[in-house]
């Protein structure tokens, strides 16, 4: 992936908005052709989880091409996330990640963990020369 960014975020809820703003500019600069709103939703979920369930200042990374984007958020807590049954007060974050992303995971690293996900833009439907979609 040709474009990359990395930013250390403050350990405060305003960092969710900051990460979304960084991601929005980054997606435009990278020329990512997929749904930007999906990526911004994923960024919000991963940063929120790092702030609520992790510890320390989150490290926010993105890499992208025209067709693929990878979002990573690291923190200094060692406990890896586990999807749970969603409820009215919490538990929806990883459910959203699983539905929106093509893949996701969490990896321990020295001093904590990194939670990552990848989104792939849908290719445009194939068309004939007359512009009719092929099924």
From TrEMBL:
The keyword Kinase applies. GO terms for molecular function: protein serine/threonine kinase activity. It comes from the Bacteria. Residues 11-116 form the Histidine kinase/HSP90-like ATPase domain. It holds the Pfam family HATPase_c_2. Keywords: Kinase, Serine/threonine-protein kinase, Transferase. Gene3D superfamilies: Histidine kinase-like ATPase, C-terminal domain. The keyword Transferase applies. This is Two-component sensor histidine kinase.
């Amino acid at each position: 992936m040709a474009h990359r960014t990395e930013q250390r975020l403050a350990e405060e809820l305003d960092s969710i908005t900051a990460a979304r703003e960084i991601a929005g500019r980054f997606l435009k600069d990278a020329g990512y052709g997929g749904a930007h709103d999906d990526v911004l939703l994923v960024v919000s979920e991963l940063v929120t989880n790092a702030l609520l369930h992790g510890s320390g200042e989150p490290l926010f990374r993105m890499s992208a091409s025209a067709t693929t984007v990878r979002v990573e958020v690291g923190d200094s807590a060692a406990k890896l996330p586990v999807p749970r049954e969603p409820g009215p007060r919490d538990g929806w974050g990883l459910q959203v990640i699983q539905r929106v992303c093509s893949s996701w995971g969490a990896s321990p690293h020295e001093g904590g963990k990194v939670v990552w996900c990848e989104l792939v833009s849908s290719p445009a439907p194939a068309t004939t020369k007359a512009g009719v979609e092929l099924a």
